[in-house]
Design brief:
Layout (H helix, E strand, L loop, with lengths): L3 H23 L8 H6 L3 H4 L1 H15 L6 H22 L7 H24 L7 H26 L21 H13 L4 E2 L2 E2 L8 H6 L16 H6 L19 H12 L16 H10 L3 H5 L7 H7 L4 E5 L7 E5 L8 H4 L8 E5 L7 H9 L5 E3 L7 H4 L10 E3 L7 H7 L7 E3 L7 H10 L4 E3 L4 H15 L1
Parallel strand pairs: 4-5, 5-6, 6-7, 7-8, 8-9
Antiparallel strand pairs: 1-2, 3-4
Helix pairs in contact: 1-5, 1-6, 4-5, 4-7, 5-6, 6-7, 8-11, 11-12
Length: 476
């Protein structure tokens, strides 16, 4: 119980905090806080959960018709006021406020004021009226919206959005380097902490002019000199360093992304530079091309789950199964020739067929059964069936492998009919086919129809003749 004297002092505290909160919200643009007072605002994330829990408990008791302890409502109201005031203090460090922070701040203030109104009503007979329950429902809704905006301020606008299957827009064929490449990298890893709603270090990173302006530490980039650019220096700091960017626990930039930022800065940090403006010898061209490639880990993340026990059970001395990465279900399989070969060595892998990305069965006496199994591996990207007895007939089975990128069929009986199958594999990037029955005419036709396909036919004839000549000289 709270005696009358203590109750009076509590009322004074709540009244004083309420007036102060309203004053702060109304006259915010005229207030400049001392450093120590502003520092108190950094406790806002620590204390904000306390009043939320207490108020929700009180609301539950009120809506279910149970008596609400006076002490519970008193502490909840004071905690709500302190949280709202500390949030205001914290907000003063961000400079110009974005819409998210503005609404979070005012919703938080409204939550505290509504809690105060409930506190005063509860001290009178009005506290048990029907409209008090309406107030309690409104307070619960307000708490929800305040938390929603707070989550978006802290973690980004998409944090509490419903999940979607929308894919990230592809980089154009001839991108503007800043708009389509650099800004894309910054948006993924930096803008979450450097936007109008969360202006960490007084730094905005949502436009080139803001990068050049910088924040508390000065300009973020120095055009023409990546080594002197604050952005690049922080990216290269150890992850454990408090000045490393992004901070520890957040998604770090890849080596490719850092090199793109470095080259763009060294080339002048222009927002009008197009990829077509660069010579093919410029390293930035290759770096952007690499960034255009799909993120394999995202594609492979959709594969069926494979337990380690399954991999262990299917593996043997003549069959090696490895994950493409430790946390992925994409598999790479090498099959070796046992003393006594049985097609079941390969066909028993059907339970994990959809997970096989790379498969090497070179040198095995495979037949129709094994080729039918390979055709079931719909996600296969790398296939080695060189030095096997396959011919055009068996190769026709593989026309369904729409994701195949690399194919090794050298030293086989495959011929021109195989090339008609190959040209329809739209994802195929390279093929190895020396010591086959493919004619020169069919090869020339394939090169014309698929100019981007890398065709490896073994050692160049001129180099082979040169080696033969050297061997002849050495023998003499």
């Amino acid at each position: 119980m709270i005696d009358s004297n203590k109750s009076r002092w509590v009322d004074y505290v709540i009244f004083g905090l309420s007036i102060f909160l309203v004053f702060c919200l109304i006259f915010e643009s005229y207030i400049e806080l001392p450093n120590l007072v502003a520092w108190l605002g950094r406790w806002h994330p620590v204390v904000l959960h306390f009043p939320i829990v207490l108020l929700l408990i009180a609301i539950f008791l009120g809506l279910t018709g149970k008596e609400i302890p006076k002490l519970l409502l008193t502490i909840a109201t004071i905690a709500a006021l302190i949280t709202a005031v500390s949030g205001f203090f914290l907000g003063t460090e961000t400079g110009t406020k974005g819409d998210l922070l503005f609404w979070h701040q005012w919703l938080g203030g409204g939550t505290a004021i509504l809690a105060v109104i409930w506190y005063w009503l509860d001290a009178t007979d009005l506290g048990r009226k029907t409209y008090t329950k309406i107030l309690q429902v409104a307070l619960a809704v307000l708490i929800g919206f305040t938390g929603h905006y707070g989550g978006m301020v802290t973690h980004g606008e998409e944090f509490l959005a419903l999940p979607t299957n929308t894919k990230q827009e592809a980089i154009p064929e001839n991108p503007l380097i800043f708009q389509d490449v650099v800004a894309r990298i910054l948006n993924e890893s930096c803008v979450k902490c450097h936007n109008p709603n969360k202006r960490k270090g007084e730094l905005l990173m949502t436009s080139l002019s803001q990068l050049l302006k910088g924040g508390e530490s000065g300009p973020t980039i120095t055009p023409g000199n990546s080594e002197e650019s604050e952005l690049i220096q922080r990216l290269h700091l150890p992850v454990s360093d408090e000045n490393h960017m992004p901070p520890e626990g957040e998604k770090s930039l890849t080596d490719n992304e850092i090199q793109i930022l470095e080259r763009w800065i060294n080339l002048g940090a222009s927002d009008t530079l197009l990829l077509s403006h660069l010579d093919n010898s410029e390293p930035l061209v290759a770096l952007v091309d690499e960034l255009k490639q799909p993120d394999e880990s995202r594609t492979w993340a959709k594969l069926p789950a494979v337990a380690d026990t399954t991999i262990t059970r299917l593996s043997s001395d003549y069959l090696t199964i490895k994950r493409m990465a430790s946390n992925l279900d994409a598999l790479s399989i090498n099959v070796y020739m046992p003393p006594e070969y049985d097609s079941k060595l390969l066909t028993d892998l059907k339970p994990i067929a959809k997970n096989i990305i790379e498969l090497d069965v070179s040198g095995l006496p495979i037949g129709k059964g094994e080729m039918d199994f390979i055709a079931v591996c719909k996600n296969l990207e790398w296939l080695e069936i060189d030095q096997t007895p396959v011919s055009d007939v068996e190769m026709d089975t593989l026309k369904v492998l729409s994701k195949l990128k690399t194919l090794k069929i050298y030293d086989t009986d495959t011929g021109d009919n195989t090339l008609s199958i190959i040209k329809n594999l739209v994802e195929l990037e390279q093929i190895y086919l020396w010591k086959t029955k493919v004619s020169e005419g069919a090869l020339r036709k394939l090169r014309t129809e698929k100019p981007s396909l890398r065709i490896n036919t073994g050692i160049d004839p001129e180099i082979q003749a040169l080696f033969a000549k050297k061997d002849s000289v050495s023998e003499n």
